[in-house]
Amino acid sequence: MPALEHSSDAERDSPGEGRLRHAPAEHPALPRAKVGVVLVNLGTPDATDYWSMRRYLGEFLSDRRVVDYSRWLWQPLLQLVILTRRPFISGKAYRSIWNQERDESPLLTITREQTEKLSERLETAYGDQVEVDFCMRYGNPSTDSVLRRLQARGCERILFFPLYPQYGSPTTATANDQAFRTLMRLKWQPAIRTVPAYYRHPAYLEALTASVREAYAAAESTPEVLVASYHGVPKRYLDEGDPYYCHCRQTTRLLQERLGVDDAAIETTFQSKFGPEEWVGPATVERVAELARQGRRHIAVISPAFSADCVETLEEVQQEIRDAFLAAGGETFTYVPCLNARDDHVAALEAIVRQELAGWL
Ligand SMILES: C=CC1=C(C)c2cc3[nH]c(cc4nc(cc5[nH]c(cc1n2)c(C)c5CCC(=O)O)C(CCC(=O)O)=C4C)c(C)c3C=C
Ligand SMILES: [Fe+2]
Ligand SMILES: [Fe+2]
Questions:
Q1: Which CATH number covers residue 249?
Q2: Which of 151, 303, 312, 352 has CA 20 to 30 A from 164's CA?
Q3: How much distance in Å is there from the Cα of 227 to the middle of ligand 3?
Q4: What is the ipTM of this complex?
Q5: Would the CB of 56 count as within 6 Å of ligand 1?
Q6: Domain range holding 286?
Q7: What is the pLDDT of residues 78-112, one digit of tens each?
Q8: Ligand 1 in contact with 170 (CB < 6 A)?
Q9: Cα–Cα distance between 258 and 265 in angstroms, integer?
Q10: Does the pLDDT value for residue 9 go beyond 70?
Q11: Distance CA 215, CA 302 (A)
């Protein structure tokens, strides 16, 4: 009988009320229920050739959380125009930053490293009660495959952790949507919790602040301005209730407070504009050139919306945006790397996970 074979945690583990008194002797031994923790990032192409790029960008840009135009208008434009050209342009950008050793994108390499380090820490705290894994919203490893694998390993509860410090509908919301799409297809769903935005978590802010201090200490010339460059979104998303822009502004303010610098020494900008619509601004590429024209010779750029270095930081910030600053008369451009697998970052992720697991372990 399915009801007996699929015995619940309470029935297996606790004596007394929850136990099935009439369970047959041959009742199969089930593994002890565990808690799964899944780190989630945006995704990445499997390779940089035209078709791999087209498949990846097609999945990404067909997501209505990312581009929310009517399907009837957007799909012909996407399939017939954008996806004939963009895979070449983006493929070139990805090739310039590709991890040749592992033949994968840096975002994938770094996310795996974050997962391994977090897993070690959680194993120390909880032993084998917790399984840690990672997945991507687009491309591989897919959200569906990872959630199913964790469930097969006995995770009846899953903490789903989108690695975006600031909530954004094109990032956090679509990652969560994808997890729930898997749950919609399961007869026996695991219980699931999603981790909220963590841009104001003290441990995240401490790691961010330490990363700036370290980069400044190592810089050739002390930066006069720190440009906090976030991935942009269409301005309309903000008008329609997405708090992303406000979370970004607050992140800069909280970072400024911790660094103890005045308003002239730190700014918020937005990068990676896509399409003709108005996006939130100012645009990083324009602002850094303006700073150079205004006589700032030494600047630093940090990208607090990215938990791992990726094409948007390694190519766009460190190549395009740096070139724009230098071409306009700037002299030294200090890039503050993403928090990646730094110990203080993984410690912050652990602190957030422990907080969100309350009552589960
Ligand atoms: C088309 C609109 C886009 C919106 C809106 C958007 C929001 C958004 N994205 C991130 C984080 C990342 N984006 C990355 C790549 C990337 N983003 C877009 C488009 C939008 N993003 C494209 C087309 C691409 C692919 C690269 C390119 O062709 O330019 C990545 C990097 C992935 C990697 O593998 O390296 C990240 C991370 C945030 C935080 C955000 C706003 C909430
Ligand atoms: Fe993006
Ligand atoms: Fe970009």
A1: 3.40.50.1400
A2: 151
A3: 17
A4: 0.94
A5: no
A6: 202-336
A7: 999 999 999 999 999 999 999 999 999 999 999 99
A8: yes
A9: 13
A10: no
A11: 10
